[in-house]
Amino acid sequence: MEVNEGNIAWILTAAALVLFMVPGLALFYGGMVRAKNALNMLNMNMWCLGIVPVIWVLVGYSLAAGESGLPIIGDFSLVGMAGIHDAEGLATFAFLMTFAAITPALISGAVADRMKFSAWMVFVPVWSLLVYAPVVYWVYGGDGWIFNLPAHDFAGGTAIHVNAGAAAMALALVVGKRSGWPDNRPVPHNVPFVMLGAGILWFGWFGFNAGSALAANGAAAQAFVNTFIAAAAGMVGWAFAEYARHQRVSTIGIASGVVAALVAITPAAGFVGSMHSLAFGAAAGVVCFFAIEAKFRVGFDDSLDVVGIHWVGGVVGGILLGFFADSSAVPASPGETQDFIDGVFFGGGVLLWNQVLSIAVVTAYSFAVTWIIATVIKSTMGIRVSASVEMAGIDVSDHGEAAYQL
User: Fold this and answer.
1) Number of domains in the chain
2) Helix ranges, 31-162 (H)
3) Tell me: the pLDDT tens digits for 296-350?
4) Of 301, 281, 305, which Cα lies nearest the Cα of 292?
């Protein structure tokens, strides 16, 4: 078989970009917590770069990609990377491994300031096997039930962001609210870190979305352009919403608007035209802003707004895709056909309902299984730091270090 070296080079580059997103996410989250918990948040994210690849190599990839013939889970045919020897297979494996690593890292922000690091060390590999791997198989496996509905998810809007957002919702509820919240709302300790993290995430997201074409082709180019445009529109949409509500535009708001829009365009990046990416970004910026405002009214302590950005943004993007999917908008190479169906605005109809169904089922599954995992951890080893540790800070108690020597 002829090896396309250009495709391999692009996939490897994209994999490196996605890996870089994890320290970017660590800075984005780390800047928003209090100084006494900064190292804990960095470590929660970086732990995912350690344990998840080990799990992925041993069995995770096989469960997510093995050809079992079943609609719900793969098999053990790829355990230990069995049979993966060709260049394209290795490149794709590495690319997907970076996605597996960043997904549980997204969840960490929901339980900032109060979850035991030892509990997080157990939670991440268990969640990756019981929740992440099956959902990835549903969405992308050739026999997966969501893939065959069909519902679309170009780069992980449902498989990653809706999945992680629903898990964050369940984990935050099991762990419980921070002491004194919401009357005592912690102030971010390093806002420049938040902006730096957002910039790294935006940079890495070009690999996240455009790399998901798994080739250096027209879909990759379209996804790249859509990612840029949507993020810009998200920043603007959030800024106008925040100004209308509070008569100011915050640095964290600008950064959050970018990330919310990147989440929303992720499922649609290679399925919609450039101008329509404006709608994805602007809608996510506005809707996610008001979703986060609502958490205080309902009393839900999602520390760093994982649900409001990743779950809500993923839902917005997945549903809008049901309207805007346009097979004529994505450039195709000679002899290549677009392997997806159109949305409501382009003559389709069934796609919208399939999108809603897939989002609903992934949300329910991820929430329920995460709740069970977290409850078992809580009843055995404990999941939350003590009140005294929460007051003093987790960095010293769980890591023996302090981020700053003041």
Assistant:
1) 1
2) 38-55, 61-65, 87-107, 117-127, 133-140
3) 999 999 999 999 999 999 999 999 999 999 999 888 766 566 678 999 999 888 9
4) 305
Measured CA to CA, the distance from residue 213 to residue 164 in angstroms comes to 22
CA distance 231 to 63: 33
CB 166 within 8 A of CB 370: yes
User: What CATH number does the domain containing 99 carry?
Assistant: 1.10.3430.10
Residue 405 lies in a domain: no
Residue 171, SS3 per DSSP = helix
| Structural domain harbouring 385 | 5-399
Residue 213 lies inside a defined structural domain of this protein: yes
**Contact at 8 Å (CB) between 110 and 304?**
yes
Tokens of 379: 């009843």
* 342 within some domain: yes
Residue indicated by tokens 């009214």: 297
Contacts of 46 (CB under 8 A, 6+ apart): 22, 23, 26
Q: Which two tokens stand for residue 221?
A: 């180019």
Confidence class of residue 388 from pLDDT cuts 50, 70 and 90? very high
| pTM (predicted TM-score) | 0.96
